[in-house]
């Protein structure tokens, strides 16, 4: 069997998924644990989305709408985007894969920031391409270095804005200059999974760039974070219609389910829920930052629903210590940041429990 597997597949390291909460509690003998590791919505799903799913249940014997017509139409209307340029995905992860499969042949080159979303490099390697990771500069994507890394074989450049796992952003001015400085054989994928949480008025938003740069920009968005639909796996990409045409040739039929489409359509207009979510996240992160700063810990300013926290010991040890106390966070060792943990904002009581537990764990480890 090993002889049948290409080397670029055999050497892939799978994305590290977390264990189910129930299994972690059983394994560690704990109860009443809280999960603040996956940047999920602390308020749960949009109530409108839940009601839409209930109504759609009786249609489960039918295949879903393979074109996602109604959801794509509403996205087009809400954001003034070309209907033909919207491609739905099983989470925005699938659209990443579609872009890679459409544009990358074995041996082609991709430029991506590091650290950033791990799936970018995995998708490139799975397609037989090779990626150049460009280190961040002061936790921010270094656009000058990204341009310097582009070669004649570069086909795709990934930009995560705001960036995961750092929470930092790129401004309109710097991104416009970056796009203008790229050669015409490069497609820029702007991943805006956390854009709804950003408050900085200077942040670059990619939809306008599609109108300006046409087929050279693809923008990704998701319903997993701000809208609370992570369990349904629904996201979308926006691009020039001619680019969408090629992605749709690669895309599997019925790639998004009827429940996911119904939920996303309802959630998209649930402005009250979105406002509550953002307010809870902003207040939660500020509480965490204030409490940890008072204890002498450094928090990286974030425009997302999560925050990086620098810890004085190895992050894996902090992760393990907190896990045994029923608080699940993410150690950043896999991202090349062994002195940092990442935590997303939870409910008020969860945020305070995280702070107390972190301080207890650090006292134990340092003592």
TrEMBL record:
Catalytic activity, as annotated: L-histidinol phosphate + 2-oxoglutarate = 3-(imidazol-4-yl)-2-oxopropyl phosphate + L-glutamate
HAMAP family: HisC_aminotrans_2
Name of the protein in question: Histidinol-phosphate aminotransferase
Aminotransferase class I/classII large domain mapped to chain residues: 32-357
Gene: hisC
Pathway(s) annotated for this protein in UniProt: Amino-acid biosynthesis; L-histidine biosynthesis; L-histidine from 5-phospho-alpha-D-ribose 1-diphosphate: step 7/9
Lineage of the species this protein comes from: Bacteria, Pseudomonadati, Thermodesulfobacteriota, Syntrophobacteria, Syntrophobacterales
Homology family: Belongs to the class-II pyridoxal-phosphate-dependent aminotransferase family. Histidinol-phosphate aminotransferase subfamily.
Highest taxon in the source lineage: Bacteria
Keywords per UniProt: Amino-acid biosynthesis, Aminotransferase, Histidine biosynthesis, Pyridoxal phosphate, Transferase
